[in-house]
Amino acid sequence: MILFVDSLTVIDFSYLCPRRGAVGESWITDIVLHGELNEESMVLDFAKVKKQIKRIIDEKLDHKLAVPSALACNAKHSEGRFEFDMQFDGNHLAMNAPEEAVCVVEGDEINEVNAIAYLKSVIMPHMPENVKDLDITLRPEAATGFYYHYSHGLKKHDGNCQRIIHGHRSLIGVKLNDISMPRLQKQWADKWQDIYLGSEEDLIDPSLLQYVTAQDKDYAFAYTSSQGYFELAISKSRCDILPCDTTVECIADYLAGQIKLENPHDKVEVRAYEGVGKGAIAYA
């Protein structure tokens, strides 16, 4: 017997790529369970699928930085912390954070195949005996416009958004005088492709970093939140500094303000997404 749940959850996370650095991603997750009927004449109660399997995915991958094992072998693990320092495409990225902010996935890179194998390995041990196999599909949202991959950290958040490198794959909508503007959507999607969005409030002098070492032309970020102390050094060319927090509400408001500066006589509307099917709208 086969049981399926489409769009069980959306995994919002970032992953380390040896070519692109930190890449924000959002994957819609579909689940298929293969098994025998239990005493309730079910493979597994839908309520348990939605709660138990989603909880495992949330704990193991969602809102984390996924690191391929090929890169993790050069990382430092000590006293419950994870640290790496890497070069990519002529740029620099280094982070030190609590281990719970990181997920190591077997392979040379993070892709759907490796991520599915990892998730299956952590979910199956929690399944009842009548569940014999599990299929997982990870898929991006169907592209209906221009989108960008971004990473960020929200130190004021009391949940997992506080992790300094996690991210999203997000659509962007821009209207001037109620007319959609694909040109402006593409302009900002290109500008923020694979970007790290940092808050000006979290910038520190690179000499104050306690764990990682900043290079010339790096920004340095550090903050303490409820999950611990986080540090990041990243090439300025791969970062954009916002004069506000980087919540989706603030991102939408920031974009509306920037576009208004270039179009002072027009009514500006920005629809900023945070992953799939959620976001904020701002006007200027």
Automatic annotation (TrEMBL):
A GO MF label: 6-carboxytetrahydropterin synthase activity
SUPFAM superfamilies cross-referenced by the UniProt entry: Tetrahydrobiopterin biosynthesis enzymes-like
Known catalytic reactions: 7,8-dihydroneopterin 3'-triphosphate + H2O = 6-carboxy-5,6,7,8-tetrahydropterin + triphosphate + acetaldehyde + 2 H(+)
Pathway in which this enzyme or protein is active: Purine metabolism; 7-cyano-7-deazaguanine biosynthesis
Pfam families: PTPS
E.C. numbers: 4.1.2.50
Domain of life, per lineage: Bacteria
Family membership noted in the UniProt record: Belongs to the PTPS family. QueD subfamily.
Descriptive protein name: 6-carboxy-5,6,7,8-tetrahydropterin synthase
Species of the source: Pseudoalteromonas maricaloris
